[in-house]
């Protein structure tokens, strides 16, 4: 692997790696091709996020009318909601090429300079997880975003010279799952910030139905709703569960996904009616049965379930908090009444959410 991890796309692409959990919102290495196939290619095809789509349509249409490059765009939100797909659509709508890289790949200013110098006028540069970009590269990005030029340092020590390098006007489309970690100067240079929200079941049902049509598998409406309701508000998870249910229907059924096949398949893959998988339930079990409902630190929970604390905190905990099953307090994590009942237990007096 080289210093810069990047790819050039015209219509589709993307990537990433994640753990083999069916409800992990992160992309899985083995499923890149399938995700590319299922990605919408235009704003009209994109399901959900109506506010973001409407605002982006205005920005892109206005730029096309004036014959200029659009303002830089920041796509913010949890993983799996379509930030990379939206960046691809931006390039498609503008009729330009898309260059892709990630924040961790830009370790030095020279990495970014090499990428910027290869841009053509009007290109879209997509930087995923931009909050993880190295500080030297970030400082170079300031000038590139604002003045469309960079200063390349040649030599070292007293003999070093700065050579200004003009770069063609471009649009930076950056994605972040942690907008709070962006520095103020970088955040202020984006002309538009799109906040991607979790999906409602109705929108996810449409996502599942569309994906089933692309995959060439028949699916009953009730089965599509069942898969959507267990997808944690995330299209990437919905598409992944659909593929696993399709496998089950082809191996153990007629190939048609009906409600019975969907429920049976999701039992096989340990995804319950709330969208929790084995690890999520193990965390709740450790919190409730092992520590009496808390409060308990994330390190102790991770030790109890045999996982890395980062996995518990970044992969499991966000959904458990959003689902109202875990509350964060100054003393640690506490199980709510909803969590107790989900495990079939009676919540004690004083449990959060008990009225």
UniProtKB/TrEMBL annotation:
Ranges for region Large ATPase domain (RuvB-L): 19-199
Single GO MF annotation: four-way junction helicase activity
Region (Head domain (RuvB-H)): 273-355
Any one Gene Ontology BP term: DNA repair
Disordered, as annotated region: 1-26
Subcellular location field: Cytoplasm
InterPro entries: AAA+_ATPase (IPR003593), AAA_lid_4 (IPR041445), DNA_helicase_Holl-junc_RuvB (IPR004605), P-loop_NTPase (IPR027417), RuvB-like_N (IPR008824), RuvB_wg_C (IPR008823), WH-like_DNA-bd_sf (IPR036388), WH_DNA-bd_sf (IPR036390)
Gene3D superfamilies, per database record: 1.10.8.60, P-loop containing nucleotide triphosphate hydrolases (3.40.50.300), Winged helix-like DNA-binding domain superfamily/Winged helix DNA-binding domain (1.10.10.10)
GO cellular component, one term: cytoplasm
Binding locations of ATP: 38-39, 80, 83-85, 146-148, 189, 199, 236
Chain intervals for the UniProt region annotation (Small ATPAse domain (RuvB-S)): 200-270
UniProt cross-references to Pfam families, sorted A to Z: AAA_lid_4, RuvB_N, WHD_RuvB
Record domain AAA+ ATPase: where: 69-197
Protein family (similarity comment): Belongs to the RuvB family.
Functional note: The RuvA-RuvB-RuvC complex processes Holliday junction (HJ) DNA during genetic recombination and DNA repair, while the RuvA-RuvB complex plays an important role in the rescue of blocked DNA replication forks via replication fork reversal (RFR). RuvA specifically binds to HJ cruciform DNA, conferring on it an open structure. The RuvB hexamer acts as an ATP-dependent pump, pulling dsDNA into and through the RuvAB complex. RuvB forms 2 homohexamers on either side of HJ DNA bound by 1 or 2 RuvA tetramers; 4 subunits per hexamer contact DNA at a time.
Binding partners and assembly: Homohexamer. Forms an RuvA(8)-RuvB(12)-Holliday junction (HJ) complex. HJ DNA is sandwiched between 2 RuvA tetramers; dsDNA enters through RuvA and exits via RuvB. An RuvB hexamer assembles on each DNA strand where it exits the tetramer. Each RuvB hexamer is contacted by two RuvA subunits (via domain III) on 2 adjacent RuvB subunits; this complex drives branch migration. In the full resolvosome a probable DNA-RuvA(4)-RuvB(12)-RuvC(2) complex forms which resolves the HJ.
Protein name in UniProt: Holliday junction branch migration complex subunit RuvB
Gene: ruvB
């Amino acid at each position: 692997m080289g210093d810069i991890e990047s790819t050039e796309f015209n219509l589709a692409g993307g990537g990433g790696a994640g753990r083999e959990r069916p409800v992990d919102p992160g992309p899985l290495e083995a499923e890149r091709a399938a995700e590319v196939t299922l990605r919408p290619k235009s704003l009209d095809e994109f399901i959900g996020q109506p506010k973001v789509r409407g605002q982006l349509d205005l920005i892109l249409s206005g730029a096309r009318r004036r014959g200029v490059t659009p303002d830089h765009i920041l796509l913010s939100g949890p993983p799996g909601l379509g930030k990379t797909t939206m960046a691809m659509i931006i390039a498609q709508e503008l009729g330009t090429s898309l260059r892709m890289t990630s924040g961790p790949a830009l370790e030095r200013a020279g990495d970014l300079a090499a990428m910027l110098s290869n841009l053509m006028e009007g290109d879209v540069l997509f930087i995923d997880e931009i909050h993880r970009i190295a500080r030297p590269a970030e400082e170079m990005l300031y000038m590139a975003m604002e003045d469309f030029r960079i200063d390349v340092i040649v030599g070292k020590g007293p003999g070093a010279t700065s050579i200004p390098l003009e770069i063609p006007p471009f649009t930076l489309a950056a994605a972040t799952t942690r907008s709070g970690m962006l520095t103020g100067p970088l955040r202020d240079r984006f002309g538009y910030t799109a906040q991607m929200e979790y999906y409602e079941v109705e929108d996810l049902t449409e996502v599942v139905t569309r994906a089933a049509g692309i995959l060439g598998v028949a699916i009953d409406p009730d089965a599509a709703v069942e898969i959507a309701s267990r997808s944690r508000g995330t299209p990437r998870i919905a598409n992944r569960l659909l593929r696993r249910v399709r496998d089950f229907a082809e191996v153990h059924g007629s190939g048609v996904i009906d409600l019975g096949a969907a429920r049976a398949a999701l039992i096989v893959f340990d995804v319950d009616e709330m969208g929790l998988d084995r690890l999520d339930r193990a965390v709740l079990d450790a919190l409730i049965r092992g520590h009496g409902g808390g409060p308990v630190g994330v390190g102790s929970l991770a030790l109890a379930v045999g996982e890395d604390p980062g996995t518990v905190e970044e992969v499991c905990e966000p959904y458990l908090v959003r689902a109202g099953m875990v509350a964060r307090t100054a003393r640690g994590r506490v199980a709510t009444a909803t969590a107790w009942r989900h495990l079939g237990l009676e919540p004690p007096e004083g449990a959060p959410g008990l009225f």
